[in-house]
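User: Predict the complex with 3,4-dihydroxybenzoic acid.
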Amino acid sequence: MADFNTQVGIVGAGPAGLMLSHLLHLHGIHSIVLEARTRQYCEERVRAGVLEHTTVAMLRAAGLGERLEREGLRHCGIDLGLHGERHRVPFVELTGKAVTVYGQQEVVKDLIARRLSDGGDLRFECGAVSLDNFIEGQPSLRVSKEGSVDTIRCDYIAGCDGAHGVSRAAFPIDSYHIYERVYPFAWLGILAEAAPSREELLYMHHSRGFALYSMRSPQITRLYLQCAPGEDLSQWPDDRIWTELETRLGCKDGWKPTIGRVLQKGVTGMHSFVMEPMQCGKLFLAGDAAHIVPPTGAKGMNLALADVYYLAEALHNHYSANNDEKLQAYSATCLQRVWNAQRFSWWMTSLLHRFENAPPFDQKKQQAELRYVMRSRAASASLAENYVGLPLE
Ligand code: FAD
Ligand code: DHB
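Assistant: Here is the predicted structure with 3,4-dihydroxybenzoic acid placed in the model:
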């Protein structure tokens, strides 16, 4: 049993918690990060892959651009497809900006390495965490492991513990409102040892369901198939996955994905979720703890990093100038960006997926909209502007 003191207690060492700890360190603010899982688990979890222009600029400005610059794949556009016909949305031509493909686990590895070399206090496999006194008095985090309890006293708590963490659940029942939507499908994602056979991502609408072609490096591809929410992976041997990917992604000009050894596979549910407000007393939520988007717009990790950018700025104003205006405005500031991303992610999801029992009229309307986005410069520009990331306020 031990007592510790810090300025900001952070729950969760995903992109949000680690980046917050790093940004606070750059401002001379001390933090302790509590993480339930092992370092290896955090560094190997395959998830997001697309960094907005805005996120890349933020990582560079925070001194985290070195490996990203070397290994990140700059993508100047994406392809949208409908039943084997595809059309490029040229981001740079339409917005002057590009996105970068760089795996979330690479961002996490860079952040962990940097925090540790800067002497940061990261506690992996921390045990069970509970949050106390964040509405009145001095906030603290209680950490129980193997019969012993540590107490971390802090000025503020940042709940960066994702969709299934304890921070969101600590809000009193009458202090928040939840907005959500569950989609009637999921994504089956694979990571494959196969050299990418195209340079940019392909989002394809197909009568058998949506498919996405993405990549991680010159040797590794990342692909997704729309599937049922509770899809049983044992029904999906590798050759069934590849046949389905070839059918859905194959293009009329003969292009199809290159096949390779499947390194990893998993199923991800599709959910839109926002908790308002993102603050209760001295507890601030950031990232997936406060909001979840369906992955189609590639926004989740980008939103998580935008939240902690605002939170770090607000805490810096508090400690350096005794000014709490930004802390008080934290939730409202984040939620503007969050709702833009929610709308965009919902729209991309609705545009591209197969809705099982949709009336024929709705199916025709959906295809007309996709053709319009593929052909109209104005509609493509709107997609591009949102995809590359709106500027931080
Ligand atoms: P998390 O990454 O979930 O981190 C939370 C951390 O808290 C975890 O390490 C967890 O172990 C820890 N934790 C949980 N509970 C506790 C506890 N009680 N005590 C201590 N620690 C705890 N986003 C994009 O921007 N672009 C994409 O292309 C994209 N594609 C995606 C594809 C897939 C298949 C999936 C699943 C997600 C994708 N996302 C994408 C979303 C993105 O991965 C998430 O939005 C992002 O991980 C959010 O980061 P976070 O730090 O808020 O939460
Ligand atoms: C990836 C994930 C996404 O959700 C997306 O929209 C684009 C790419 C990826 O993992 O590469």
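The longest strand covers residues 177-193.
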